[in-house]
Amino acid sequence: MTKNWWDYKLNVKQIDRLIIVMMVVSSIIFVGYTIKYSEYNILLKEENILENNFYFYSQEKANLEDTIKVTENSIKSEDMKLSEIQNVIVQREQKLKDLENQLIGYEKLRKNDMTYFITPDNEKVLSLAENMNNNDPVEIYEFVRDKIKYVEDYTTHDFRFEYWQLPEETINLGTGDCEDQAILLCTLFRSKGYSSDDVKVAFGLTSETNGHAWVELFYNGDWVVFDPTSNSNSYVEKTRYYSLVNINYKGSFNDITYEVIE
Amino acid sequence: MERRFLIIAFLMITIPFFSYMFHIENQKVSAQLDINTMLKEKVDQSYLIIDTANSTLKDRKILLDEKINYINQLTLEEKSLQEKQNDLTLQVFSYRVYETNDPRDFVDVNDPNVQYTLTQIITPSMGDGEKVRAIFNYVRDDIIKEEKLTRNGRIDYWNYPKNIIETKKGEYEDKIILLASMLRTAGFNESDVEVVGAKLELAGSTSSDIWVELKFNGRTYLLLPRLNNNYDSFNKDEIYSLYKVEELYRFNDKKLVGL
């Protein structure tokens, strides 16, 4: 006959042993529990620290992002300033170039360097030259002679009896006196490609007090005179012109050279 | 014996109870560990983001500083260009006034040179005739006539009395400007001293000329400060009856009447 466990009867000693074992087990479990409890509390504290850190970093990140945004806005603003100042510099450099050119022009005027007046590269002159069909000097001469009305300087220029116009001014005004017409004609010849060796404005005295200006061109193997103030001839051989008008030659110029006989 | 059973009974209750509690705490620890790990990852990520942001900010600041420095450099360059432009503008202006100013600007009644010169050649006790003679003779004789052949009239037509007196040289119209300025400074009224430009025709020949028209002592004189002329050489009525005179303009320091 087999025995069930309940059939066993423990004696006092065995019961005491059982109690001791159970107490040890119970203590171990309790210690384990308290360790876990402490561990949990430590983890809670750690969580708290981590949350604080996370919050701090989030704040820091937001601050940094704001600062980056402000800095980027500053960069944009500086870029605009940079662009503005670069534009101003470009404008100033252009203005300086213009002023320097004007000054060079005035210095030439001061030294009576008449090359100042012959401007074959001027846009207005080039445009007019391009509109002319061919390079025939007679056609160019007839254009200046017929289209530029002869008027005295004082009617146009602040009551001055003498005022030499630049070719562009003469084209714009459509008027001018002898030297204005001659300057424009010479400039057109130069724009059309005639060599500076072959064309010039010449000037001189026709009487003690009267001056005059005309254009001389080396044409068909000889020097000829184009005088746009006169519409009777297209051109005349130079020596004949000098004897006809009784010219006392005083000088000449084009865009490259000038000569004055004092 | 009963006490022992009670203890056993108590331990039999406490052991599962503590086991249960241990189990619960263990689960809590495990869950908290997961939470903390996740948080730690987030913190690490945030730290990395901050590190990157710091680096970006540093780069941006360097870029900004570079731009500011470049702008400062350009500002200095622009300032230097502006100074150069101002200088050139002044230089160009010093020429342009001669090219563009109308004749009134050149008749100067406040010029110290003119005032000083007048103290040298006239005295307050002189009559008008003596004053005019002295001024006319000074302009005619003491200012050397300089007639440049290649005058183009752009910057060398009208000139200021100051320049004429300082150089003691001048073209004919410069003498006219100086004469008008000296007469006006000497006290002659603006209605009595005028520069006149005109065309003159005599026997089919036409020429242009300018002079100072002066009214005093009930007469009107045309002053042409050329060699051999005196202040009273030309009476207006006589000249205007002898020549066909077409006046082109009149001016002094106050007025300008054109065509």
CATH topology of one domain in chain A: C8orf32 fold
Low-confidence stretches of chain A: none
Helical content of chain B, roughly?
A: 55-70%
- Tally of separate domains of chain B: 2
Query: Averaging pLDDT over every residue of chain B, what do you get?
Result: 93
Strand order in the largest sheet of chain B:
5-4-3-6-7
Number of helices of chain A: 6
Strand content of chain A: 5-15%
Strand count of chain B:
7
Considering DSSP H and I runs of 4 or more, what fraction of the residues of chain A is helical? 55-70%
- Structural classification of chain A: alpha+beta
Q: What are the secondary-structure elements of chain B, in order, as H or E?
A: HHHEHEHEEEHEE
Tell me which CATH architecture of one domain in chain A applies here.
Answer: Roll
Quaternary structure of the protein: heterodimer
Key structural traits:
heterodimer; A: 262 residues; alpha+beta; C8orf32 fold; 6-stranded antiparallel β-sheet; two-stranded parallel ribbon; 6 helices; rod-shaped; B: 259 residues; 2 domains; 5-stranded antiparallel β-sheet; two-stranded parallel sheet
Write the layout of secondary structure elements.
The complex is a heterodimer of chains A (262) and B (259).
Chain A lengths: L11 H99 L12 H9 L5 H11 L1 E2 L16 H7 L1 E2 L1 H14 L7 E7 L5 E9 L2 E5 L9 E2 H8 L2 E6 L4 E3 L2
Parallel strand pairs in A: 1-2
Antiparallel strand pairs in A: 3-4, 3-7, 4-5, 5-6, 7-8
Chain B lengths: L1 H99 L11 H10 L6 H15 L1 E2 L15 H7 L1 E2 L1 H14 L7 E10 L2 E12 L2 E5 L12 H7 L1 E8 L4 E2 L2
Parallel strand pairs in B: 1-2
Antiparallel strand pairs in B: 3-4, 3-6, 4-5, 6-7
